[in-house]
Automatic annotation (TrEMBL):
This is undecaprenyl-diphosphate phosphatase. The lineage of its organism: Bacteria, Pseudomonadati, Pseudomonadota, Gammaproteobacteria, Alteromonadales. CDD domains: PAP2_like. It comes from the Bacteria. The keyword Membrane applies. It comes from Shewanella cutis. Residues 80-241 form the Phosphatidic acid phosphatase type 2/haloperoxidase domain. It catalyses: di-trans,octa-cis-undecaprenyl diphosphate + H2O = di-trans,octa-cis-undecaprenyl phosphate + phosphate + H(+). The keyword Secreted does not apply. InterPro entries: PAP2/HPO, PAP2/HPO_sf.
Length: 260
C-alpha cells in the first residue's frame, strides 16, 4: 500500500505538470493560436486527440480507462475508482456548462475571425454571434472561413478542423475538454498510484497534457480557460475521492453491522 503522504506528493506533481504550460502562457501574456499550420499532420493528430474528449467519444475514453483499470487493479479498489470517476464526471460536466453560460467568453478562433477584414456578408462580431441560433452560428463560421480561405495569405484549415470550428460554437470559459481530461487523469491516478501502476498514470498524464495543448493550438481556448479548468478539475477530483471514501466506509460499516 502506498503511503498517503507520498501519494499526495505524486498527485501534486501530476497536477503541477498539467498546469505548467497554461500558467507560463498566462504569465507571459502569450497564447498558442495561431501558431501551427492547421492543415499540417501535427494539427490533424491534435484534432484526433481532442476528439477523445468530445461527446460522444469521451464516453469511450472513460470506458477504456475503466476496462484497463479493471484488468490490472484489485477489484475492491476498482469499485472506488469506478464510483469516483462517475461522480467526478457528472460534477465536471454540470459545472462546465453552468460556468460557460455565466462568463460568456468568446473563443479565440471567433475573436480571430472577427478581427479579419472580411466582406460585410461574411463579417461577424462576438456580441452578435452569440445572439444567433446554434445552426446560424455554424453557418456564419463556415461563411467566414470560406471567405478567408480564398485569400493567398489567409488561414487554411483541414476539413476535420474546419468542421470542428463549425461544431464548437459555444462559449470558451472554462474548457470542458480540459475539465473532463484532467478530472479523469487526477481521479484515476489516485487509485492507480495506490495500486502501484505508475506507467498507466504516466500515460494518462501525457494524454491530459496533450488535451490542454490541443485546445489552445486549435484555437478553441485561451490559456486562462485551460488553467482554470485544471484547477477546477483538481477540486472536483479531490471532492469525489473524499466523498467516495466516506460512502464506502459507511456502507461497509452498515453491512458489517447488519450481518451481526
Amino acid at each position: 500500500m502506498t503511503h498517503p503522504a507520498y501519494l499526495l506528493r505524486r498527485l501534486a506533481l501530476v497536477w503541477l505538470l498539467l498546469a505548467a504550460i497554461p500558467s507560463l502562457l498566462l504569465l507571459t501574456q502569450n497564447q498558442l493560436f495561431p501558431l501551427i499550420d492547421l492543415q499540417s499532420p501535427l494539427a490533424t493528430a491534435l484534432y484526433w486527440l481532442t476528439t477523445t474528449g468530445t461527446a460522444p467519444y469521451g464516453v469511450a475514453t472513460v470506458l477504456v480507462v475503466l476496462a484497463l483499470a479493471y484488468r490490472y487493479m484489485p477489484k475492491a479498489l476498482f469499485i472506488n475508482l469506478f464510483l469516483a470517476i462517475g461522480l467526478s464526471q457528472v460534477l465536471s460536466l454540470s459545472t462546465s456548462h453552468a460556468l460557460k453560460s455565466f462568463f460568456k467568453e468568446p473563443r479565440p478562433n471567433l475573436v480571430y475571425l472577427a478581427e479579419q477584414a472580411l466582406p460585410e456578408e461574411a463579417q461577424l462580431t462576438p456580441n452578435t454571434f452569440y445572439q444567433l441560433a446554434h445552426s446560424d452560428r455554424s453557418r456564419v463560421i463556415a461563411e467566414a472561413l470560406n471567405e478567408l480561405q480564398t485569400r493567398p495569405s489567409g488561414l487554411t484549415l483541414s476539413p476535420n478542423i474546419k468542421q470542428h470550428w463549425e461544431d464548437e460554437i459555444g462559449y470558451s470559459f472554462p474548457s470542458g475538454h480540459t475539465i473532463f481530461a484532467v478530472t479523469l487523469v487526477l481521479t484515476a491516478s489516485y487509485y492507480l498510484l495506490l495500486a502501484g501502476l505508475p506507467l498507466f498514470t504516466s500515460a494518462l498524464l501525457a494524454w491530459g497534457l496533450l488535451m490542454g495543448l490541443s485546445r489552445m493550438l486549435l484555437g478553441m481556448h485561451w490559456p486562462q480557460d485551460v488553467l482554470f479548468s485544471t484547477l477546477l478539475a483538481a477540486i472536483i477530483s479531490s471532492l469525489s475521492i473524499f466523498l467516495v471514501s466516506k460512502i464506502r466506509i459507511f456502507t461497509q460499516g452498515f453491512v458489517k453491522a447488519s450481518s451481526q
